[in-house]
Write a structure and sequence with these properties.
The protein contains 21 helices and 25 strands. The protein is of the alpha+beta class and 724 residues long. The C terminus is likely disordered. It has a seven-stranded mixed beta sheet. A seven-stranded antiparallel beta sheet has the order 15-12-13-14-11-10-16, with helices on one face. Strands 19-20-21-22-23-24-25 form a seven-stranded antiparallel beta sheet. The protein has five domains: 144 residues, Rossmann fold (3-Layer(aba) Sandwich); 161 residues, Topoisomerase I, domain 2 (Orthogonal Bundle); 118 residues, Topoisomerase I, domain 3 (Distorted Sandwich), CATH 2.70.20; 122 residues, Topoisomerase I, domain 4; 118 residues, no CATH class. GO terms for molecular function: DNA binding; DNA topoisomerase type I (single strand cut, ATP-independent) activity; magnesium ion binding.
Length: 724
């Protein structure tokens, strides 16, 4: 009897599929049953080969060897993944295997993971595709009952390949050209450089901004609201002339307000659309300070490990119509605290999810993020996992509630011959707002129901409010994600048709890659965070001066993304796109070679490099400070200070770990200092009666779960953990 090889993206998903399909014979990297052989990748097992694969001369970075434009890019097995690749290849090569079922993540990158493995293993067997948006037992069973022909996804693979190859041709050549020309580690790319340019553009706007003082004239009625003067034509309430403002103030003082019109209308506020990844990342950044990468990591665990949320890497806020029949089971799954009250209300009233949430035309690869049919097990969730799960479920439940209804009142008046206006609102029905425990029953700027046209109201007070125009805000992670999703704000002078195209194409990058792009910009010392806002470093500013103008353009990058989308839809040939990218890479290299500019390090220290003797640079990254050799060919690095999760016993703030070896010391901004050895001893003593080694292990695991790269506290505890 012939068998099918099922290729999952990660071991956890592979093991879930194997369990559901009854495969129990587990060996290294494989679980076999009577009909199926389940194996998996570890993320990517195969990638695009390094330049020296094509020519040995590329082992050394030299400007004269550029551009590198191989006719056909090759694949190579990633070194650390070689063992698992060989395991997968053996299963694919078995005589009793007749077909392959791709079960990697259902999206562009997941398709690439699988197809590159199949290509490198030279597999010619029939391909089928498992396409599911959650990894619950029910979803897996239904998915295997509805497997797709693998050929249906050939264009998706072509788009994924085109994206990866374009990054190789443009990114490899531009980065090597800049680095060798200016002898500095200068990384650029088709998405990261325009992203950096948007942060720089916003910083320049703020720098050039000059505030203007303005005045607003108000008048408080005896039995009514506060009125504000407004310009008769523009409707603006601000006056930029102090003399004019003071003149108007005197003109209306103690004058009655004559009501010229009263307009009352009912307004319905629909529940917000369901979450896509970018909106969740934005909101988590605003509410909790989580990075985009951190939010995605937590969502991935809720999808893969806990199985309580659907696939997170989605750019859609809508659901496909075939999901309507699953709503009852999903409501049942979330009928737990703190949602039971709202689920009871939904069931009691027989409410259905709002019809506007279902739109097949606005769902591409994946629908919005919603709960699965699996009930949550809170004791197994971290605090971050609970927070994100509750955010998604709350938004999901709100979609079943009716709209919020308000009475909006627009009052127009004349005081001293000048036009004034007042607006008021009153909540009539709470609707979906009840899910968020914000009933908003208080009236805003209360307007008595008896007020009508031609009424005269006496004033009790009038005066001027003074204010200043404010500069645009620096880009936080939330704002930068929004800018990447819709960069039109940074594209002044472009025609409306192009701006609309960019909006429809989803901006620069994808929901799956934006978090990594932001992370890479920080790790390359091109972008840094001060408080909640991003700022371009000196290195980043110089890079933007050195790269070709079009490579900084969100316009060009968005057009590339649109072309990738066309490849995915079968409207553009991949080879045509790649030829454009190769030609463009050649132009970039030529421009950099001819450049007469120079790069200057402004962070040079007085410390010589112990390897080559050149003065070292002091750089910051998200985990602390380090010194690196200014000669990129030397590559020597040394940590100065590392951010940690260790709390100061005095002020409870996080401390830095400085020094090396036995001289490591924890330092707090309040002045507290403590040797690492003393810290470990104190920590052990505190934990002795309260926690076991298992507790410490759990703490260390949580540090890793939070996405903190090698925190010093975890390092210190690790030494204790590994004793005996």
């Amino acid at each position: 009897m012939s068998k099918s090889v099922i290729l999952a993206e990660k071991p956890s998903v592979g093991k879930d599929i194997a369990r559901v399909l009854g495969c129990r014979n587990e060996k290294n990297g494989v679980i076999e049953g009577s009909k199926y052989i389940v194996t998996w990748a570890l993320g990517h097992l195969v990638g695009l080969a390094e330049p020296d694969t094509y020519d040995a001369k590329y082992q050394t970075w030299r400007l004269e060897d550029l551009p590198m434009l191989p006719e056909q890019l090759k694949l190579s097995v990633i070194n650390k993944s070689g063992k698992q690749f060989n395991t997968v290849k053996r299963q694919l090569s078995r005589d009793d295997v007749s077909e392959v079922i791709i079960a990697t993540d259902a999206g562009r990158e997941g398709e690439l993971v699988a197809r590159w493995i199949l290509d490198k293993a030279n597999t010619k067997k029939k391909i089928k595709r498992l396409w599911i948006s959650s990894v619950t037992d029910q979803a897996i069973k239904q998915g295997f009952q509805n497997l797709h022909d693998g050929r249906k996804f050939n264009s998706l693979y072509a788009a994924a390949q085109a994206r990866a190859e374009a990054d190789w041709y443009v990114g490899m050549n531009a980065t090597r050209a800049l680095t060798t020309k200016f002898n500095a580690s200068l990384s650029c790319g088709r998405v990261q450089t325009p992203t950096l340019a948007m942060v720089a553009s916003r910083e320049q706007e703020i720098k050039e901004f000059k505030p203007d003082t303005f005045y607003q004239l108000y008048a408080k009625a005896e039995r009514g609201p506060v009125f504000w003067w407004k310009h008769s034509k523009s409707g603006d309430t601000r006056l930029f002339s102090k003399e004019k403002a003071e003149q108007l103030e005197q003109q209306v003082k103690n004058k009655p307000a004559v009501i010229t019109s009263v307009e009352r209308k009912e307004k319905k506020n629909d529940a917000p659309l369901l979450y896509d990844l970018t909106e969740l990342q934005r909101e988590c950044s605003q509410r909790f300070g989580y990075s985009a990468k951190e939010t995605l990591s937590v969502l991935q665990r809720l999808y893969e490990t806990h199985k309580v949320l659907t696939y997170p890497r989605t750019d859609s806020n809508y659901l496909s119509s075939d999901l309507k029949g699953t709503m009852k089971e999903r409501l049942k799954a979330v009928d737990v605290r703190p949602f039971s009250k709202n689920v009871l209300t939904i069931n009691k009233n027989g409410w259905k999810m709002a019809g506007r949430m279902f739109n097949d035309s606005k769902v591409s690869d994946h629908h919005a993020i919603i709960p699965t049919e699996e009930a949550p097990v809170y004791p197994k969730m971290s605090d971050k996992e609970k927070k994100l799960y509750e955010m998604v479920v709350t938004r999901f439940l709100a979609a079943f509630f009716p709209p919020q209804k308000k009475e909006m009142t627009d009052l127009q008046a004349e005081i001293g011959g000048e036009p004034f206006a007042a607006k008021g609102e009153k909540v009539l029905e709470t609707g979906w707002k009840a899910v968020y425990d914000s009933e908003e029953n208080e009236e805003k700027n209360s307007i008595p129901s008896g007020v009508k046209g031609q009424d005269t109201l006496n004033l009790v007070k009038s005066g001027l409010d003074k204010g200043e125009t404010k500069p645009p805000s620096a880009l936080t992670e939330s704002a930068l994600l929004s800018a990447m999703e819709n960069p039109a704000r940074f594209m002044k002078g472009e025609d409306k048709e192009l701006l609309q195209t960019i909006k429809q194409s989803g901006g620069i990058g994808t929901v799956a890659t934006r978090a990594d792009i932001i992370d890479k910009l920080q790790n390359s010392f091109l972008l840094e965070k001060r408080g909640n806002a991003f700022h371009v470093t000196s290195k980043g500013k110089q890079l933007l001066d050195l790269v070709p103008e079009e490579l900084k353009s969100a316009t060009l990058t968005a057009e590339w993304e649109q072309q990738l989308d066309d490849i995915e839809k079968g409207n553009l040939n991949k080879k045509e796109f790649i030829n454009q990218m190769k030609s463009y890479a050649g132009e970039i290299v030529d421009g950099i070679k001819k450049s007469s500019q120079s790069f200057k390090h402004d962070n040079v220290t007085g410390t010589p490099c112990p390897e080559c003797g050149k003065l070292m640079l002091e750089v910051k990254n998200k985990n602390g400070k380090m010194k690196v050799c200014q000669d990129r060919s030397c590559g020597y690095k040394k940590n100065i200070a590392k951010s940690t999760n260790a709390r100061c016993p005095n002020c409870k703030k996080k401390m830095e770990l400085r020094g090396e070896g036995d001289g490591k010391i924890f330092v707090c901004r309040c002045g507290y200092k403590e040797k690492e050895s003393s810290f470990v001893e104190r920590r052990n003593k505190e934990k002795q009666d309260k926690a076991s080694k298992q507790d410490v292990n759990k703490y260390l695991n949580n540090q890793e779960d939070d996405g903190i790269a090698n925190p010093a506290l975890a390092e210190a505890l690790q030494k204790w953990k590994n004793k005996d």
